[in-house]
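Q: Convert this sequence to structure tokens.
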Amino acid sequence: MIVKILNKTSKDFNGVTYNDKKIDKGKGELLVMKNFPTHINSSSGRQEVKNYFKAISNTNKRVQNPQFHCAISAQGRSYSKEQLALTAEKFMDKMGYGEQPFIVVFHNDTSNNHVHIVSSRVDKHSGKRIERDFEKYKSQTALQDALKELYGTDVHKKLDNLLGYSYTNTSQLQKLLESSGYSVYEKENTTHILCNGLHLKSINTEDLKFSEKNIEDIRKKQIFAIFKKYKGVFSNSVFKVADEKGKYISYQSELQYQLKKKFGIDVVLSFKDDKQPFGYTIIDHKTKAIYKGSEIMKMGDLFKMTSEVLDKKLFEILANSNITIETKEAYKKHLEDEYKCEIRDYMIFLKDSKKTSYNTWKETRNSTMDQIRNFGKVSSPEDKIKILSFANELYVINHNDSAIFILKELVTEHNQNLYLSRLLTPQNFEQHPIVSGRQVPVSSDFEAMLRRSSLFDLPGPSQPTGEEHENNRRKKKKKR
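A:
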């Protein structure tokens, strides 16, 4: 998780307007509104909120930039919006803004869950400026302290553990640390280690404990056997992941994903600029050792290199989704239509089961039921969820949490049929995105199902048979 101070000067508190527009477009959600007077709440307009911030700031006109505006971002969907809200509140307390009025708005328009926080740098009680010297450094420390208190995430402890791994050179150490979220650079024979811009440690390069011990034959054989078996089970096709500006580049494959998930083995491909990988490094978290890939298996025998490129945002969505074999094709088609691209099968990493977090399941179900109940009123392109059809099945897409569900499994077949029955009117039938082609086009068989003439043709909740009813009666009698 990282924090970024947004230092654009604003005496008019344009951060409020920016976040309010996100909410209006369905790309933001107000999570926290704290320390405001009772007459200013979540129902208040943006101008009322801005005026309150400006009234506080006017008590000290020497403060040239009274708006405090920052963003806290998680990697992919690693933290939920509820966790980000808690983090934001704890962070503001650590920054000295715990008693200040502030808003926290969750944004869902990128591949990384993140929140924006807006407050005033003028203390509402004393009128004094809240200390902002070394603000960017202070913010990094405040965030790390907040994460440690809330989730036990200790970047210092984690670093000490990683420095205890066996590595034979600084290049291996750098790959280990960078794959774990740290950044490393060497200057004047000193290795400097940072995390999210916060300097953690400087080590004399000569004092690094390089290992001279060769990989044990037994572990070498184990890793070789794992590679040999699973390169035939999971796709070993390697593709490039890059952002629009080409600043972020990595090389990924389903095989790498599954090796890390199942065995704690990180396979990091080595490359220069945007050229194809020329080698790889193995980070074995089980034995806390790092090995040169060619010691185990030649790269050409382990991987198949492709020339395909996938956008970083789209990769994060796929990597953090709950895609299973049952939902793969529908989600793939949906993303291809939305992003106007082609997604290869080997770019999709399937999960072991349909399990997803309870909060995501519950929120998706509630939003879906709201859409069914309010059919025709909640169908704008900015909705949190989308109901679409594919291969004669209905699916629900949760954009915020990169999740997909089969509709009847999420809300029961009865509620699915209730939804279908509301497509019967000519106007609804022609305009609804499922039918109109703005999502996945329906087949003729499915269209015939949608055109059923009466709600009574649709099955309701199943009723117990006579035998089942008698068995239930006997069970109740025994309980008495």
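The two ends are 56 Å apart (CA to CA).
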